[in-house]
């Protein structure tokens, strides 16, 4: 690390490192690296009650509500869903006192509801979020924030006009691990960022969105016409309703479901506003079940130089046909090291080149005459005294405490914003800047074209 980088590191890290005990807390024997345990911020919540309702009680809806009510002072009072079985399950899980309805607008009319969780299929996000804000509710909207880019601008306008508290549900950006990773990145620990590469691969039917369909699904138990919204009208189809992620009309495919997590984390750590170009390619390899989205996508994003960072490239891959069994990683590769990001943990592996280039090995030195080799060594030692030319290497790991839940942290941030007026960690502008490149990946895939993006104006060029 250069003296300038060292000063920058000390300035950023100083005594504010969010560590529980600065010394060694654990050791990973395989790599002999120290693991430093990260300490989440401790909050004292006010006694005032916040009453929430959720629209869309599928996998994410149930998970969000179960997490949200762990925050002190939060009460679940209402829910809307288009499948009667979900409404019945709400009563079983949360009690008969929870008000349930098929019509989300009934929730917006209630004065005792302070916040709405939007956990519907993607094509309903903007409509419900905007209506909720206009009804005076705070909104927690699942990612991706919107299905279409123009919808994102309408959500931003509504939030700015109503002044509502609005947070997008990519919980990773609230993780204590990501906060520490950002601090370490900004302090220059990996040098200048050059490449980001990430993959999130799966090999299971459920992982590829072949979700279970209840035996009582029928036109009587499901409001399929409302589900369709403004998409093509068609007869009742339980597969489209319960496996909506597989269809362009209702979801956003792999990019909207998974790329957006990776993009959100990247933007949070680097401070980037987004790429200027996106190109995606892929295929439908294994899951030929009637879906009209690919099960394998690879995308390349070009990030321009800004005052926050130098130019770099990012490659994202998701493969639902991974015969190796799946797996994931995210790597921020810099000129002096790599930051390997987990979900609530990360490692920094440094590999800093010395000033001395070394000689021998795969080198022209071996083609010199013996006399010339001797002369070269003498010159080299005079220029680089005491250097063996080997890189400086080290590895350090950081992790949140066992049992830490970044989704709970994300909801805590949301409710803190409602109670104190402080800014949310992931507002509507951040949400569109994360969703936009993901949506462009879909457009590039289907059009087979390079897409150009204005990350400041958040518009296709």
TrEMBL record:
Q: Which Pfam families match?
A: GFO_IDH_MocA, GFO_IDH_MocA_C3
Question: Key word Signal present in the record?
Answer: no
GFO/IDH/MocA-like oxidoreductase domain: from which residue to which, for each copy? 241-339
Keywords of this protein's UniProt record, alphabetized?
Oxidoreductase
The record's SUPFAM superfamilies line, in alphabetical order, gives: Glyceraldehyde-3-phosphate dehydrogenase-like, C-terminal domain (SSF55347), NAD(P)-binding Rossmann-fold domains (SSF51735)
Q: Where is the Gfo/Idh/MocA-like oxidoreductase N-terminal domain?
A: 50-169
- Check the record and name the InterPro entries matching this protein: Gfo/Idh/MocA-like_OxRdtase_N, Gfo/Idh/MocA_oxidrdct_glycsds, GFO_IDH_MocA-like_dom, NAD(P)-bd_dom_sf, TAT_signal, TAT_signal_bac_arc
Superkingdom: Bacteria
Q: Does the keyword Lyase apply?
A: no
Query: Known NCBIfam families for this protein?
Result: TAT_signal_seq
According to UniProt, the name of this protein is: Gfo/Idh/MocA family oxidoreductase
| Organism this protein belongs to | Chitinophaga hostae
Organism lineage: Bacteria, Pseudomonadati, Bacteroidota, Chitinophagia, Chitinophagales
